[in-house]
Each structure stands twice: as C-alpha cells, then as structure tokens.
Design brief:
By secondary structure, the chain is mainly alpha-helical. The protein has one helix and two strands.
Length: 133
C-alpha cells in the first residue's frame, strides 16, 4: 500500500473519530440540558405543591385554633352556669335554714304561749274534734 494512501486513511479515520466525539459531546450536552430542564420543571412542581400544602396547613391550623377557642369558650360558659347553679343552691339552702330556724322559734313561742297544745300541732276543738293549726 502506498504511503500517501495510509496517511489519507489515517486522516479520514481521525476525522471520523473527531466527528463521532463531537456528536457524542453535543448529544451529552443536549441530554444534560434536557435533564437540567426536566429537573427545573420538577423543582417548580415541587414548589407549587409545597405552596398548596403550606396554604392547606395554614388553613387547618386556623380552623384548629378556632375550634379550640370555641371549646374553651363553651367550657367557660358551662363553668359559669355551674357556679351560678351552686350559688343558687347555697342561697336556697340558706333560706331553708332560715325557714327551719323561724319554724323552731314559732314552735317554741307557741309552746310558751299555750303549753297545752299537742306537739303534733293539733289542739282540742271547742265542739269536740281536733283541728289543725
């Protein structure tokens, strides 16, 4: 084989290798660019989803706080009603004690005024039957 033919074959082989290397490099770059673009799009999707979930979490937190405040308010109302009922019960008990004391005083006064009156509150009736006072 002629030496110039060997040189041409080597040059053609080198050019072909350079073209293949160039094509692979370009393909690698476009593949990398496509991959980066895809990653950017995926990152945007994640950010949108994060915004949606964050807004949902804020809404749920506000609802939870509102519900807790409503529960505390209802509890305070129940406690207030219970305190008022206890106060009313104490007042009734005090009135009952006052009435009981007054009744005892009236019995004692009645006994002092008319000792012959029966202890069950009955006294002899002028026509014969017993009447209740």
């Amino acid at each position: 084989m002629e030496p110039w033919l060997i040189v041409v074959l080597v040059v053609v082989a080198l050019v072909l290798l350079a073209l293949v290397a160039f094509a692979l490099t370009r393909r690698s770059r476009t593949s990398g660019a496509r991959k980066r673009a895809q990653q950017r799009e995926e990152a945007r999707d994640h950010l949108r989803e994060a915004e949606i979930r964050g807004a949902r979490a804020e809404k749920e937190q506000a609802l939870a706080e509102e519900q807790a405040a409503r529960a505390r308010r209802e509890l305070a109302e129940v406690q207030e009603r219970a305190a008022l009922a206890e106060q009313e019960a104490r007042q009734r008990a005090a009135r009952a004690d006052e009435d009981r004391t007054a009744a005892e005083q009236l019995r004692a006064e009645a006994q002092r005024l008319a000792p012959d009156v029966a202890s069950d509150g009955r006294q002899p009736h002028p026509e014969g039957g017993a009447t209740r006072i």
